[in-house]
Amino acid sequence: MTERPAGPDAVPAREYAARVLAALEALGGTLAAAESLTGGLVAAELTSVPGASRTFRGSVTAYATALKRDVLDVDGTLLAERGAVDPEVARQMAAGVRRVLGAGWGVATTGVAGPEPQDGQPVGTVYVAVVGPDGKGKVTALRLNGDRADIRKESVRSVLALLLSELSRNGRAQDTEQNGGN
Questions:
Q1: Which residues are bridge partners to 94 per DSSP?
Q2: Where are the alpha helices (DSSP H) in the chain?
Q3: Could you tell me which of 52, 42, 47 has the C-alpha nearest to residue 21?
Q4: What is the pLDDT of residues 38-48, one digit of tens each?
Q5: Which of 81, 110, 171, 180 is buried most, with the most CB atoms less than 10 Å from its CB?
Q6: Residue spans of alpha helices (H) in 34-101
Q7: In this predicted structure, what is the pLDDT of residue 179?
Q8: Environment class of residue 10 by beta-carbon count within 10 Å: exposed (0-12), middle (13-18) or buried (19+)?
Q9: Which residues are CB-neighbours of 156 under 8 A, at least 6 positions away?
Q10: Do 82 and 89 touch, CB atoms closer than 8 A?
Q11: What is the pLDDT of residue 149?
Q12: pLDDT of the residue at 169
């Protein structure tokens, strides 16, 4: 689990949002977001960038656990056994929103912003996930410090940074395929 303090960071979420949208546009990709603890903050950062509508399809704020199951198709048994704060739940949320909103890429945030623990998880436990066009996903586990607002802001920054990393890797793979190299 990656530990870091929440709060000011070298690269603000808004800059990550602009980079993500530019990378998606260059790849001809689209994006959808599934949010729990961030409550729409990922969508807000993305839509604050002019031209976001060219690649950002929309978001689902599935704050209630039942919505994760009923709207995003997260496995009900998984939710019952592990709770909503779980890496596989994050991955399934990202895959579900990608499907539901018809996007090439899906991202998700789930975790505990506080002030109280949830599902046996301490405050600051966060999972962010990305699922790409190939259906494969990547999940990052975070242990964030700070107050509720700091944890939510850092979760947004972290999911956008993870997506940018995956888009960069995908773009390099496309370049290699197009140029016939390795």
A1: none
A2: 13-27, 41-47, 65-70, 76-82, 87-100, 148-179
A3: 52
A4: 999 999 999 99
A5: 110
A6: 41-47, 65-70, 76-82, 87-100
A7: 44
A8: exposed
A9: 13, 38, 41, 42, 45, 109
A10: yes
A11: 97
A12: 87
Give me 132's structure tokens.
């790409």
Q: What was the pLDDT predicted at 6?
A: 53
What is Dmax (Cα atoms) for the chain? Answer: 53
* Residue segments in the chain with a per-residue pLDDT below the cut of 50: 9, 175-180, 182
For the record, the structure tokens of 45 come out as 């950062």
Domains and CATH numbers, the chain: 2-177 (3.90.950.20)
Coarse DSSP helix, strand, coil percentages of the chain, rounded to the nearest 5 percent: 45, 20, 30
The pair of three-digit structure tokens given for residue 50, joined into one six-digit string: 């002019």
Whose tokens are 């509720």? That residue is 148
